[in-house]
From TrEMBL:
Lineage: Bacteria, Pseudomonadati, Pseudomonadota, Alphaproteobacteria, Hyphomicrobiales
Keywords: Membrane, Transmembrane, Transmembrane helix
Protein source organism: Vineibacter terrae
Presence of keyword DNA-binding: no
The keyword Membrane appears for this protein: yes
A GO CC term attached to the entry: membrane
PANTHER family attached to this UniProt entry: SPHINGOLIPID DELTA 4 DESATURASE/C-4 HYDROXYLASE PROTEIN DES2, SPHINGOLIPID DELTA(4)-DESATURASE DES1
Transmembrane segments: 23-46, 182-202
Any one GO MF annotation of this record: sphingolipid delta-4 desaturase activity
InterPro entries registered for this protein in UniProt: FA_desaturase_dom
Fatty acid desaturase domain residues: 49-283
Official protein name in the record: Fatty acid desaturase
Amino acid sequence: MLAKPTDYLTADEMRTLRRKSDIVGALLVLHAWGLILGAMALFAWWPNPLTFVLAVMVIGTRQLGIAILMHDAAHGLLFDNRRLNDWAGVWLCGAPVGASMALYRPYHLTHHRRTQQPDDPDIGLSAPFPITRVSLRRKIVRDLVGSTAYQRRGEQVRRAMGPRSRTLPARLASLLRGERDFFITNVVLLAGLALAGSWWLYPLLWLLPLATWYQLVSRIRNIAEHAVVPDNDDPLRNTRTTYANLLERLFVAPYWVNYHLEHHLFLFVPCWRLPAAHRLLLAKGHGPKMELRRGYIEVLRLATSKLVDGPRDPSRQRGIQHI
């Protein structure tokens, strides 16, 4: 459910926090792609197991990062210029990782209106928790071996192709239309790497991180945001902010995604201003009433506090495939 920003902020504070910036938006997008290409270049220059694992982790987290920047664009917050905001949100952020901003925007706004309620479209991401540590380990293994990505992309492809009753050419044409932006951006990335003489970096350090580390950090992000919150009806406690140290920001939680409670309270605040919103809430004495955790390890311990697995509910299993 949506909170009223005026319950927490003055008009002047809201005016300051809602200010967007084309320069900051451009720097965030450049930062994400700079780290992706820089990690590729590091491995190409110094190939060894350490730089390979490091590159997969950095790139997978920045793939989540550009998805987060698409999320900001879906709220109209990445750039002050609306046309630039929507163009960058589609072509530089969402499409390269297979996310459609056009489909995501209405779905996500419904999540904000109905947070942690039975008709929240994201309720399946938090409802199964807490789970056991064994269950989480199984999920992590599925993420890191590519099983989660195979399942998720398979679902997306099947939806894009439409019903099996249609002819194969019609289904393929539908797939091309539905996945057009993903195909275009990935062909451009592959072509750019090929022109640089390193086409092999595309499957090794774009598709592989997308199929593995990106899946894992997306799961951790979703768990941290709403799983095992103390009160589904209280806007200060049905969403969580997780403090993140430098390593967590580099490998798990890019671009202030950890300030999720502030994002839910103030939909008009760009991601880079969320820490300022957090400080204001603390200064006004709201801290004790907020769902705050000291790090992602603490959140995962809370989310795995169940001692024994019960019988599997197929409907709940379908919901958590998207974590």
